[in-house]
Amino acid sequence: MTGTDDGTKAGTRGPARASGPRVPAPWVRTRLRAAPAAALALALLVALTAALAAAFPRAVDRYEDAGLRRTLDDASPRRTTVQFFAPRPDLELSLGEGENALREAALRKGYDAVLAAVDKPLVADRAQSSYGVRTSDPTDASESFLARPSGLPPRVALVAQNALGAHSRPASGRLPRATDPVTATTSEVEAAVTTETARTLHIKVGSVIHVPGLERAPLAVRITGIVAPREPDGAYWMSTPLIREPSLIQLPSDGGTYWIGALLLAPDAGPVLLGTPGKPERYWQVAPDTSGPTAHDVSGLASAVAALESGPGLARIRERVDPLTDATTDLDEVLSSFTELRSGITPLVAVAAFGAGTVAAVVILMASGLAAERRRGELALVRARGGSLPGVLGRLLAETAVVAVPAGALGLGAALLAVPHARFSSAVAAALAVTVLACVALPVRAAFAHRAVRVHGGREDIASVRPSRRRTVAELTVLVLATAAVAALRRGGTDDAGSSGGSGDQLVALAPVLVGVIAALVLVRLYPFPLRRLAGPAGRLRGVVAPLSLARAGRTSASTALPLLALLTALTTAGFGGSVLAGVHTARDHAALLATGADARIEATQALPTALPGRIRDTRGVREAVPVSVAYRAQARRGSGTAGETAALVGVEPGPYGQLSRELDLGGFPARTLRATGPDGSGGSSGSGSGSGSGKAVVPAIASPSLADRFGTAPFSVQLEDDSKVTVRIAAVRDVTPAVTDLDFLVVDREALTRRAARPTALLLTGGHLDGAALRRAAGGGVDVRLRAEVRTAYVHSPLQSGAERIYTAAVAAGAGYAVLALLLALVRAAPERSALLARLRTMGLTRAQGRRLLVLESLPQALLAAVGGALTGWAAIRLLAPGLDLTAIAVAGRPAPGGTARLRTDALSLLVPSLAVLVVATGVALAQAWWTGRRGSVRELRAGDGR
Fold this sequence. Notes:
alpha+beta, 21 strands, 12-stranded mixed beta sheet, 14% strand
């Protein structure tokens, strides 16, 4: 036999073919196995970007929530509590019905109705809310043992508030009781006072205080206990501070003073108030729960508060409790202050967020472009062999989604763990946007590149690819958007934009990015032309490195727009953001300097002790102590019959004070400006404070602008607080002076004042690393010691400020990191072609040193273009947008700060450092590429059939 049973020839050997149809290898698995490094790099990029994108809104939510809680906690419970009150029951009711309306059961029923009218998101803190009845008009208490600071009898209010025992502990005695039903005619009731009231008014357990009666005998109030509040700062006690501690009242007529205190009756003793002339009123105090609300609930909170003050909520309370019920609270003002601060900070943070987000999106697009370029031949071959465009795009989408979707989910999970306790939806939306962009970038790029079936494409450098009409229209559209954004910001500023909301805010926040976009598009079109003009003169030089590098730089790839856009946007955002942060720090420093007048300030209401300046100068860190005398209520007038104008008269030693003013740049002047002269022009007195105070000698003075406008240069009289007078003539005008803040001032030589008026009331200190504790020990009691550093720290009060600064810094840093990554991606894309070029040139005799210079000179024009363009674009963005940006909110957070509005100014360091970093990175990468190519050798780079 010549064959086998299966029909094959005898003696043939080989692998047996499998029966059945062949199963092709899965596309996605094959592609991932073929390029695992590229897939891993894409996964890392997507995961990092998704994590940052998801963490950003959650971080913003966290610092805004913390800012809201800080705002509510800083406001006193008297401001945040919603107080409802109703007058005594209708006089048409019988006495018994009126008494029943003031008992705890009826008040509790009204309290339940009030709580039912509170709408979410406003939630009542039931533990600190309270209700009761009180006399709205305190009455005199004539007992002789009570404190009388100026001989006037104290006045007491009777308060019957619920849950007194739950919110206090007896310090001595016991809580008041109402064993028998209390009525309007009850002759004696029990009461308690707080420890602070007892100490101030000299009340003891067993004391009896008589309160005048209304058409009856005086009411005897027996003190049965002294109680200490369990939470003295809680809303139960601080909604009406009088029940915790008495208040000293000064009469405006004769200056006499008297105390007002509260006697705490038993909760069910309210009816006795009907027998007093104190005008009893019922009240219900709703303390808000400040731990629950979040920043995105502020608008709902404001609506709920408005409903209780004068809306549907108050209408329901009047219907169920009393038609005359009224409400009052400052909670709406507290929420409004938070909203105002947030609206001033949010647009600034949005600028950094849009900038960093734009650079990150460009980097993802560049990564997809690098992948599309790497697979250009493969995809062209698939299309040439019959692959449909939808089929190819679907496979690309699938293989990208397999990598990007898990990476995006991983980044989202990392963001949720890193930034907990914030909204979930915004983080998911941000991570989803990043994942979708990463998934569709490669298919969309391939769709445009392989619409037509072709195997070999033409050149794609700038010399051969001309801008299409669509590109021109797109660039003009972006130009119009950028112009509109800049015009809107210059016209209305971030404050108006933040209050308007909507797309206008986003357009304004995108303004620096759009300025960078326009610059990138213009530079990409223009920069090859000067390089080509330089190529001719360079060709006449010796050597080939310079002309070859210029020729190659002038014929760079047409895809240069994306990396240049990333670099310009990042540099513009970094320069803009750095200038914002520098402006914020400068504004705080300047406000703190104006508030203190020096590095530190020691001041008293009276003259300082004579030995104090010497002790202060001996304190560690003090370089100089300049004494000044300040009369804050001096009266300046021209003529005896004219009205005076209040101004601060500052007596100084011209030499040291003038030098201090020049060093601090606070209205510096030469000492001769304040040289005192007599009426005949002769020199003034020589001893410090030896002037007579008669006001006859004319004294030169430095004045604030408003006083100079009113009095001119003619002499006028100034009367001091000690009734001494001095005649001054304005010799110079300064906007500010170290000794006085936010007041009209006159600065004169101390020698022209009386000895009493010339005694220093303040010391202005200069020096490095001043020790506040040491200064306070040296100053002793009765003086105020303020350090410039402490005042500056106080301006950073709200978490809105510190959180916004951290977010801004992180966004700028992230944008810079993505810009460096964009630069690296651009160089990596050109690396194979450059490596092949070096290999070919080395076969022609090019040395390694020449190869390094070639790569550096080739990459330097684009890097230099990005660096210079980024610095100029950042400077232009600052100059264009500065008039509409107000940094006051983020700098001082609405606290009283001198110096006016804080405006954005150019910070040279913020513009130059990122630009220089781009040049360093580009040069370093070119040198590293040249070194690596030299190690690999020319033979490996020049493979047959290599398309490079």
